[in-house]
Design goal:
Layout lengths: L3 E3 L2 E5 L6 E6 L4 E4 L5 H15 L4 E4 L5 H4 L9 E5 H4 L5 H13 L15 E3 L3 E5 L2 E7 L8 E5 L4 E3 L16 H9 L2 H4 L5 E3 L9 H23 L3 H6 L7 H19 L10
Parallel strand pairs: 4-5, 5-6, 6-7, 11-12
Antiparallel strand pairs: 1-2, 2-3, 3-4, 8-9, 9-10, 10-11
Helix pairs in contact: 7-9
The structure holds zinc ion (ZN).
Length: 277
């Protein structure tokens, strides 16, 4: 498996769901974000890290605790871990572990490393900087997709890790809160004015310019506003019409239905087209 290389940023894209695992050689440390999916893919990432690490510390960042993002945690036992306080405190941490177990069972997968829920050394509750020499990670709590999501900007390369936000192949997945989701996106505005060069989403293609990042932010905002409008006006046709252009329509239709349900609940309304909610 050959990573996509761009200015010191190496991205391994999984065969599954275009899931991105990213390695940054940040001078005084190596940063690894969300190593994931198939056993061979995780071991390719492990070998790549071993090839460049030397005597330096490895920082392992988890953008959130959904199972596809923590599935590789056990392959990097020496890493210094970074995530949100909410991820560190997650009480139902057994749930993503069960999902990994079910996934591996379904496909007869054996992993040459333990499946575990990560223990976090830098558990971030408010915006904070994690620094090791020239390596500098700006960590911003970003709830909305999940309560435990974070955005992470690696300063030396100007790379933002957005977790499951701002994908070019997925619509917003608002599992947690649309209000928080929009507030989290708003935090990116000041970064766009200065240090941000590229964005690596959890799934999909890299956004390689501030213009493209801004386009994705506006697209997410527009989608959320339109879902909210359809819910407020109880307009089932408008809600359905929003899904007509999705790539991967089966999965995105599923996310779209969840988004409508979350926003309807926030508004104290029924999902348009569904009775007795
Ligand atoms: Zn997720």
């Amino acid at each position: 498996m050959i990573p996509y290389q761009h200015h010191g940023v190496a991205i391994f894209r999984s065969a599954l769901y275009m899931t991105n695992s990213t390695i940054i050689d940040a001078g005084d440390a190596v940063v690894l974000v969300d190593p994931s999916w198939l056993p061979d893919e995780v071991m390719s990432i492990r070998r790549y890290v071993d090839g460049i690490l030397g005597e330096r510390p490895l920082y392992l960042v988890f953008t959130h605790s959904h199972y596809d993002h923590i599935i590789g945690a056990g392959a990097f036992p020496e890493a210094i871990t970074v995530a949100s306080q909410a991820l560190a405190d997650r009480e139902d941490f057994q749930e993503p572990l069960n999902q990994i177990g079910d996934f591996d069972d379904q496909w007869y997968l054996e992993r040459p490393y333990p499946i575990l829920y990560p223990t976090i050394q830098y558990a971030i509750e408010n915006p904070a900087v994690v620094q090791q020499g020239r390596m500098k990670l700006h960590v911003l709590p970003a709830p909305g997709h999940s309560p435990c999501s974070i955005f992470v900007l690696e300063e030396s390369t100007g790379t933002l890790f957005a977790g499951d936000y701002l994908s070019d192949v997925e619509i917003p997945n608002i599992y947690f809160s649309s209000i928080h989701y929009e507030a989290s996106l708003a935090q990116l505005e000041p970064l766009l004015e200065s240090r941000l060069q590229r964005l690596v989403p959890g799934h999909g293609h890299v956004a390689d310019s501030p213009t493209e990042i801004r386009r994705r932010i506006e697209e997410s905002r527009h989608y959320i506003a339109e879902v909210r409008r359809a819910v407020t006006q109880q307009d089932a046709a408008a809600l359905a019409a929003l899904s007509s252009t999705f790539a991967f329509p089966k999965m995105m239709g599923h996310y779209h239905a969840i988004n409508a349900a979350v926003i309807a609940q926030e508004q104290g309304l029924a999902v348009p087209g569904e009775d007795n909610v």
